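To make this tangible, this section ends with a sequence with its structure tokens:
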Amino acid sequence: MSAQPTSSGRSEGRDARPGRNGRSSRTTWRNWAGNVAVAPARTVSPSTTEALAETVRRAAEDGLRVKAAGTGHSFTPAAVTDGMLIRPERLAGVRKLDRDAGTVTVAAGTTLKQLNETLAAAGLSLTNMGDIMEQTVSGAVSTGTHGTGRTSASLAAQVTGLELVCADGSVLRCSEQENAEVFAAARLSLGALGVISELTFAVEPEFLLTAREEPMHFEQVTAEFDQLVAENEHFEFYWFPHTDGCNTKRNNRSDGPAKPLPRVRGWVDDELLSNGVFQGVSSLGAAVPALVPAIARVSSRALSARTYTDIPYRVFTSPRRVRFIEMEYALPREAAVPALWELKQTVERSRLRVGFPVEIRTAPADGIPLSTANGRETAYIAVHMYRGAPHEAYFAEAERIMTAHGGRPHWGKMHTRDASHLAASYPQFGEFTRIRDRLDPQRIFGNDYLRRVFGD
């Protein structure tokens, strides 16, 4: 399934089955951040793999390009099309849960929230995940969504099988044992190879995580970064620009007992401060940019230390209701601290006003062709700006720094890189494009964004 251009997009015409003349009323779909909009000729929401395959076959016969959009949590135009837009909300639900094999198979439009709640009810869990649950499983996988982990990798790395609807409407089942070459590429493909109809994930018995969150000075966390990563299963931190303040989070498996955050404390921290108050100060900063440094100093001190123990998805994820746009780069892990220092110095020397924290996470190396962690231990540096605030100068400076340090752009986040840069950044880039040429020579699943990043 194509990227979720990585909260919720809108769609009408749910089950529209236009005639072969392709006429239907055009409705606009927008991503969560509002920076991507599309008015396709047709919008459909098939509920089965068979209906999805027929939809793709008919669109191809009618000369329409096909893209699928998830819930809109990506910031790129990877799902934009003037042809057929497939919405996945009816292609949802758990199809098979195999305890003996340690796998769960779900339809492509299932949200991570639905998946995690179903797994928890069965006493099971994913090993790792990102920090939100609103995405569809296929959109999250297809754009390279990741959390942070010393040895546990992205969502795509946890996929053990998938079902792919190809350009001719045929259905291809893929795993390490069946169509293995396509499987390797299709786990993270931006929707360029076909439309994913279902995914199988590896799961394990549910476990507990103890989260330890605490403020830390910028100099200390960067000086101890390698040690903090080595000593914790999952480590991440946020730096607040215009300050020396950071907030760190360490997640490690625990024997229990479970000790969730008290309801009132969780609401104050995660809803009132991190969403309600932050929405207000973000709006104020956008209206009066001169206030941003002072707001940042207050924000960096707003959250105090806390420790809690809970099931994984409640620790890994948190609500994100303040709308923003984002750029994220994956760097060789040894380059993370120098790049972050350079970013800090750039902000301090400039007239930039940055009201959102910078997020730093890590991932182990993997072998997925288009994975941002392909072949190397990786650190991620993500920069954000409040939706509607000027971002161009800040993102341009961040991208200049990240690319100078060997960075690869997150596929679901804003960037300006093209095929010439990306081909040099990914050892298996040519392998992926050859598979694409074989599966979709007519570029039924193509659009302008994919033309830029893949070269045709």
Q: What stands out?
A: The first strand starts at residue 29 and ends at 30. The mean pLDDT is 91. The chain has 14 helices and 20 strands.
